[in-house]
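sorry for the late reply, my laptop died twice this morning and i had to redo everyting from scratch. anyway the thing you sent over, i finally got around to it. pasting the sequence first so we're on the same page, its 646 residues, then the predicted structure underneath. double check i copied it right bc i was rushing
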Amino acid sequence: MAVVTGAVLAGQYALEASVGQGGMATVFRARRLRDGAVVAVKVLREPYAYDREFVERFQREAQAAASLVHPNVVRVLDSGQDGDVRFIVMEYVHGEDLKAHLRRCGPLPPERAAQVAAEVCAALEYAHGQGIVHRDIKPQNILLTESGEVRVTDFGIARALSSATITETGTVLGSVHYLSPEQARGDPVTTASDLYALGCVLYEMVTGRLPFDGDSPIAVALKHLYDEPPPPKQVNPDVPVWLEGVIRRALAKRPEDRYASAAEMREDLERRAEHWRDGPTVLLAPPRSAHRRAARTWPRPSPVVLAAVVLAVLAGGMAAGWWALQDYVNVGEVVVPDFRGRPLPEVQALASQLRLQVVVGGEQYSDRYPQNTVADQDPPPGHRVREGRWITVITSQGAELVVVPDVTRRTLTEARLLLEQARLRVGAVQEDFDDQAPRGTVVSQEPAPGSSLPRGTEVRLVVSRGPELVTVPNLVGLTLEEARAVLHRVGLALDRIGYVPREDSEPGRVAEQEPEAGVRVRRSQRMAVRIAVRPAPAPTQAPPAPAPASPVEPAPEPTAEAAPAPAVRATVENSGERTRRVRVEVTVPAGAAGEVRIVVIDARGVRNAYRRAHTPGERVVQVVEVEGYAIVQVYVDGRFLQEVRP
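ok and here's the structure:
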């Protein structure tokens, strides 16, 4: 089934317009037929409809999201399947996503950014309470309604916490710019991963910039692992200190250093926590224990004691620094091997032998490296690094497969566009005559429509040159066999054969043809000919009546004489459904010695049924088989004698 605007899914949802494209689905605005309500329908994209892993992920989305009913969560109304098409029906939100809003309006005022993040926290608090992690919090999945409300959508890669980890298939999901360090390492994902992603979104809301960016997914993943983003206040001086503290705590590298829950982060965003009551005085938000710690009063130490403590701390720090420097200097170096093309378990084993550590930074399609092997790495092969260094690898998904569209009956320009949209290329283009396809349209393609091919594969096309035209030859004067041979040479076929009495044409030869000679016709044109036959002899007129005799002299009695016997007789001996057996008797006339030839003209054409020399007065008897309307002609010594029509 083609999923396009105007289609009706499962007889219930009429698709009105496409409103968004996702990684594995297309979102349509649709009309529910039973009550006319406007809904959003998410349809699994065709290239993934036959991929078991994607289908299972899509089904998990429907099951997980259907259980979430919250004011800040886009509600799932239905899910189903129509043939090979799988879809999810959600409530339609009038508004725009946060990413589009930021591109259009720039950074949000800090108070508004905190309000948006707080409402996202409310949605996450509810989902986490149901055992569901969103796993893909990003501005594109945060919708702002026309009235300013915040709705979180697309739990497309969410999964019940009790089911499995995000690494069970070796796939790192989520958008790399909002990827938590544990996701970059391939570690299990927890609720803290959603809070880290929300910290990235909050950073972008107040600064208009991403906290981490780079030239490649690997570079961005490495920054999530090891780098600190520029302080938000440095990018936007209007960001208050307390909000900067919330952001930095949400972006802590270790999950245990972040907020314990979405509810706790929401309290800080709404400034309801106890430590915000008198106004913040620190850059970073206090540790979680500070929320429950009772205020204590400690005696003020003397200057001497304080100086001794400071000296002790400095001495200890210098000693620790010295030993740390010695450890760093004494760490050995190794040459990074080439991991590309090797399976991940083999890479991990080799790295362990070299005292290196491997982290999966993502995956990508690759035409060069097989699926589930390493396609790229950082640092690259040959670099010298210290032992214990983290090596980031990107695993291969194999060649990206796309479905070949059907471009037959399309113009060549349309075919090129459709193939380019499917991420394929037009290969060799041949032209051929075709009686059915208009000139310039595609007659056939190779590979066939519906095939799955690697991205960028060439598709060969055959384009119609229109019907092939030939000039009708002149057949008049030819025998039927000769006419067939001439037509065969030019690619035409004989369709109908008729007979016409003609005095000016030799019997057994073409007297008329249709179409006429010289006309240009298609090769599929069927020809008709009419074969000349002798006209039937005119009936003999009776002699005039004699004048009446004198009454005085009576006329003598006339002498009766027998009429001369005909030279040719034909008798039907046996008649079948289509054929007849005819007995032909020929008496050779006196003085006409020579060759006797019996010619049969019927539905089969013109043929010689008998040909042999005889003497005058000799009687010839021959049985011939005819089909349909037939004419039997007899020639003696090349001269026409008589014809019969049995």
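The chain has six domains: 8-91, 95-286, 333-396, 401-464, 469-533, 568-644.
thats about all i looked at so far, will dig more tmrw
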